[in-house]
Each structure stands twice: as C-alpha cells, then as structure tokens.
Amino acid sequence: MKSLVEVYDLQQQVKRNLSQKNYQNLERLFAPLVGPDLHKVLQIQFLFNPQVEEANEILQQLHAWQQEMPQSYYPYVFIAGFWYMTAANERGIQTMDRVTLAQRLRFSIANDQFFYWALKTLEFNPESVVTLNKLLEASGRFGIPDWLELPVNQPISFTCAHYDGEAREYISSFAGYSLPEGAINITLSTPTADEMSFIPLYWLRHILITAPEHIESRKTIIRFLSPRWYGDEKYEKVDQFLASDYCSGLSAFQIKILHREKEYDRLTAYNTLPSINLRKALEKSEKHFAELVNDHLSDEEDSLTRFEYIDFCYHILTTMPDDRQNSRDALVQSIYQSLHDIVRLASPWIIFYRATEVFNVLFSMMKIYEFEDKLNVFDNLSRQTRYRNLTSPLEVLYSALAANFPLSDVFLETQRESIERYYISAERNLDYGMFRLHIFILSKMGYAASIKPVIEKFATEYRGVNASILCYEIYHGNTPGLAQMFSVNTNIDKSNMFLDIAVQRRSSQAMLIKSRDLETLIEGNDNPSVKAELAIERERLLKLNIQSGDALSQYDYACSLIASSDEKQIRQGLFIEAPKVLLQARVRLDQLAYIAYLYAFCAFNARGMDKNLFVMDFWIKQAMQWDADPNYWNFLQKVKEGVALRPLYNYYVKRSKSKISEEMKNIMEHVIQ
After folding, report:
1. Do 203 and 221 belong together in one domain?
2. pTM tops 0.85, yes or no
3. Residue 174's closest CA among 110, 232, 104?
4. Which of 205, 492, 561, 617 has the fewest CB within 10 Å, making it most exposed?
5. 574 lies in the same domain as 656
6. Which helix (H) or strand (E) holds 184?
C-alpha cells in the first residue's frame, strides 16, 4: 500500500506527463502498480474532477492519449470511468420512480458509452479487474445496454446511428467527444441461469477468476442484494450470497467485512422502521452502529464505518423534532468525533479520496450547529494533505489561500505562482456554495484579515468568478456576517463592479444574479420606458445563459413569462419554455414541482389556456409527488371546497378530460412516460 505522500507524488507525475503528452512515461508510472493501489489509481477521480477541470478538457486529453497509444488499455479505462461517472451523475441517488424521463435518456446514453469503452478495455486487457468491477456496478445501477447480448462469440459491431435528436444533442454537449464506431473484438462466456437473472454476478465470476479475494466487488453485490435495490426485506438473498461459493475460501476477517456491509444497509433502511416507537428503534440502531464503530477491523474499514455512521447520525439530525436538544447535541458530537477518528486513522487512500468530504462535513456542521473545532480536525487533516490533491476542489482552494498566508501552519509561498495559475484555471468550475461556506468558516476561525485581500486580488487581478461573486455579495449586504468579519460596509457601486467582472467572464451564476437584480429593479420602478429597458436586458442575460445550458436560467425565464400580464408571453412560458425545464429535468425537484403548480394554477384560472379541471388536477398532483410543500395540498383542497364543486369534483374532472388541447396532452404525456 502506498503512503499518502507517494499517492500525491504519483498523481502530480501522472497529470504532468498527461498534459505534456509524455505517454510512454505514463505507461512506466502505471506498470509497477498492483492490487488495491492499481485499483485506486485507475479511477477517473484520480486524474480529473469536473469541479476542477472542464469535462471537454478531460475528454480531449484522454482521447489524445488513446489515439497515440491505441494498444494500451489505460486510456480506455479512464474514458470508461468518465462515462460511468457521467451516468451516475445523470441518474442521481433517488429511487428509479423519481428519475425523470430526461434523466433516463441521459444516463442511458452515458451508460452506452461506458459499456463501449469498458468492453474495449477488456479487448486489450481481459483481466482488468477495475474494469470488470465497473461493469458489475453499472449493470446493477443502470442495466446493460440492449446491444450487448451474452454470450459474445464474435466481434460486437457498435454504432450510435439509432440515436435520435435528443440523444445526439446531449452527446454534442460534450464538445471534446466524438461518437465511437466500429468493432469490439472480445468474447464473453455464457452466463449461468442465476447470472442471467442477476447480471452483476456474471461480472463477479470473471473478477474472481483473476482476483479470488477481491472484496470490493463482493461488497457491491451485497448492496445490490439488499432491499433498496434488488433484495428482500429479510436479507435472505444477502445471506444466501454470503453462504455461497462466491464467498467460500475467504478468511474470517474478510467475511466479517462483508457482514458489516450488510449491517450498514440494515441500519440505514429508514423506511423499514416502525412509525410507532420510532425514537426507540432509532436509538437501538444508533447503539448497534456505535458497537460497529468500536469493533476494530482495519484502518480503512474503520474509516468507512465512521463515514456510514456519520450519514446515519446526519439523517436522524435532519428528521429529529427541534425540541430534542440533548439528543441533537449528542449526535452532533458523534459526527464530530467520527471525523476526528477518520483523520486520526489516516488511511492513505481514504484521506486522498475523501478528505474533501471530511472538510465539507466539518465546516457544514460548524456552520449549522455553531461549535468550534476543539479537536483540531481541520489542522490535523491539513497537515496530512498539505492541500496537494489536484482533483479536490477544496484543496485547490486551500492551496491558493496558503500560497498567500499560512493556513493551519501550511505556507506555500514559494509555489505561489504555479498554485495560483492552477487555481485560476480551475476557479470557475468550483461550486460557489462550497466556496462561500469555506471562506465563511475560515474567517470565523480567525483568518478573515488574511483572506480579504486575497479574495479581492483573485477578483480584481485574476478576474476570478467565485471571488467576484462573493465580493459582490459582501459589498451588497447579502452576507452581513462576512462583511462584519471583513470590516466592510455596504457599497452598491463596488458590489456592482465585482458582479460586472463575473458577468464579463460569462459566469452563468453571475448573469443569473444580475438578471434577478434587474427583476427587483423592474418591480420597484414606475417608469414604463425604464422598465422596458431593464426587461430587455434581463431577457438578454437569461437567453445567453440558456444558450450555454444553464438550467436555472431556463427555469427563471419560464416562470417570469408565465407570471407576466401579457397573454402571448404567458402562452410562450407554458407551451415553449416550461416544457424545456421539464424535459431537461436539471433543476431541483421542488423547482419542477413549482412549474407543475404554475400549470395547475393557470389551468384553474384560465391563464394562457382554457380552464380545465382535469389538467389542474393532473399538475397539482404531480407537484405534490415531486415536493411535499403543504401549499400544493392547500391549493387542491381550496379547489375542492369551491362552491358546488366538492361533491361533484371527480365528475367535473373526468368531464374535462375530453377538452384537453393537443399541445397540453403532449406535455402531460412526456411527464408520465
């Protein structure tokens, strides 16, 4: 197992050689790696993170490598990993019944591309365990594509010619990618009956031929055989798997690790807990989880246990009644202690891949529950990482700060030029909410005086997007806490100067903020000509954002049109712009719900369409399915309680069904597909 220092050094060497197109050197760097180290290195997250580097830049570098070294399996592994990551991001973590049609289209296309590149990897290295493991995971999460029929006894002729306009439009959003065509020259054995009914077992069999003691693949099978995926509530399928030949020959220690995976799922299956005596059931689960935390396996497994325990405690915190102060404080302390333990255990690959998660959870908890870092989790983790992970957006941010002043005893002044150059190239991809949170907590920890000039330098000298937006918010009075720590008074002119910097950089978030500021000015202005000019500018900004694919701007634009007093604009919002929001499904579910509510409101009040109770009923129920906002339920009840309607509500709804316009039918059918 490599040390953390060796991992960071290897990442820097790999990224440097890849950017310089020294592909032979890359081969030499990967060649000595075996076992867990090889598995960890051949993950797309080792090389790239879309929150640090543009997806198109990622693809261009990988394709250049693949074209120069067509017989090397390494670039194929990473391209496959990119598409697996993309499919996972498109699908999200919600249950399949809450995955929209648009999401299904996108993750299916990404899954298509993943399977192509994964199978091409096996063409050049049939024993690539990391690829077989990804095939196992993808088969369970997304299914296998229709074009892959097992067994495979002759080359697979892969084509994307059947992709429709929507599919091709999605693929074209990856400017650095060309659809692959051609043969995949592999053979794949005949699945057993059990494997045909549960394809992940097929890939597991192939993994175990090469790596008989491979634990990660068995863990994944256990997760898939649990109730929230394909299993039964009594975990009989999991128990059968643990007792099967797939797990024979494992040591008692390895079997204990697998049993623990089952326990994680069982303890976090919140939907199976009784509604009566729920608190006692949770307390029992918490006690059992604490026992797992205290039962040592290995540094890595102990760290993973604590991450599961953190998720468990956080779930209880977010669902607990506000009056349970003592229980809340105990759970907050348990999460904090677990973070401390993870850092203390210092498992190299855990720290490399999950330090960002530790930093994020720590600062989020400190923000919400207002406690101090008395166990020095931040300082201790900073000393271990020294902010060296080039694919961690937080470590990239921290390194840029530490290049200007000592941050937790890490001072990188001698590397300032190269660090700031890398930071600025990545800065516009960083999540602004994360950026703002971490600047706020660091300022509370005593770094405000050091941070302020650095942030303003990033905004003015480097024209950094996140720094400019934060300075706008501070000087605009949106963040009084930060303004006080920075000793800044509200200055609208200065705030607009910073916002304009970000707008000039074509930041979608800045243009969205500007458009919303203009909306406020429009609402507060009585001069028709001024209102018209402001409205034109607002629409221009929103349309620029929409052209670049910003979903929130599309949402704002649709909502503003529907809310207007002009009949033509209302219809444009309802029948042209709002359907795009529903089709893309790239906004939050509560925002999709609000679009559905607008349809219901307009259908009931005959805004932009004829009054129709069936349409109203359909959309308000869709809104309630997407979001439990009580206002939607109240709206429906008020409609039902209308004069002469309540006893005959269902009758009037059914009678209206035959009067739905064709354009509304098309929108509704899209939603229910």
Report:
1. no
2. yes
3. 110
4. 492
5. yes
6. strand 182-184
